[in-house]
Amino acid sequence: MSAVCQVHATDLDLGDNSRITYEINRRQSDPNEVFSINETSGVVYLNKPLDYETQSFHELIISAKDNGAQPEYSSTFVGVKVLNINDNSPSINVLFLSETGDAVVSEAAGIGDYVARISVSDPDFDEERITVTLVGGDGKFTLKQTDDFLYALCVNAELDREEKDLYELKLQASDFGNPPLSSEMVFLLRVADTNDCHPVFEKDVYLISIAEDAPQGSSLIQMKAQDADEGINSDVRYSILKSNQDSLISIDPESGLVTTAEALDRETQTEVWFLVVAVDGGEPALSSTATVSVLVEDVNDNEPVFQQQLYNVSIPEHSDIGSCFLQVVATDADSPEFGTLLYSLSDGFDKQDKHPLFKIHPQTGELCVSQDIDRDSGHTAHDILIKAEDPGGLSAQTYVHIEVEDLNDNAPVFNPDEYTMSISSHAQPGTEILNVIATDRDSGRFGQVTYDVLPGDMSSLFALDKQTGMLFLTSTLTHLGEASVKLSITAQDGDGLTSVRPAEVTINVLRSAQAPAVFQRSRYTFTVPEDTPPGTSVGKVEAINPADFTESVSYRISSGDPQGLFSVHPQSGLISNVKPLDHESQPPTPTPSPVYSTTQVNITIADINDNTPVFPKISDTITVSQNTLPGTVLFIAHAHDYDSGANGQVQYYLKSTRNGMFVVDQNLGTVTLNQSLQVDHQQRYSLEIVAKDEGEPSQSSTLTLTVKVDRTAAEDSLAFETLVYQVEIGEGYRKDSEGHPAMRFTTSLYQRGHHLKAWWEQSRPWIRILGKTGQLSYILLSDGKFFRINAKTGEIINWVALDREQHSQHSLKVMVTDQGHPRLNATATVHILVTDINDNTPQFTHLSASKELNVQIRADLPAGSLVTNMFAKDLDAGENGTVTFSLVGFEKEGLGHFEIDSETGDVRTTELFAQNTEPYYTLKISAKDSGATPLEETAVIHIQVHGFEALYGRSDHQIVRRFTVKEDTEPATVIGSASVADKERFHYSISEGDGSIHFGIDGSSGEIYINQPLDYESAMQYFLVDATVGSLAFAFHARDADGTFPNSALRYSLTFDSELSATSSRFPFQINPYTGSLTVAAPLDRETTPSFAFTVTATDQAEEKGRA
Question: Would the pTM count as exceeding 0.70?
Answer without folding.
Answer: no
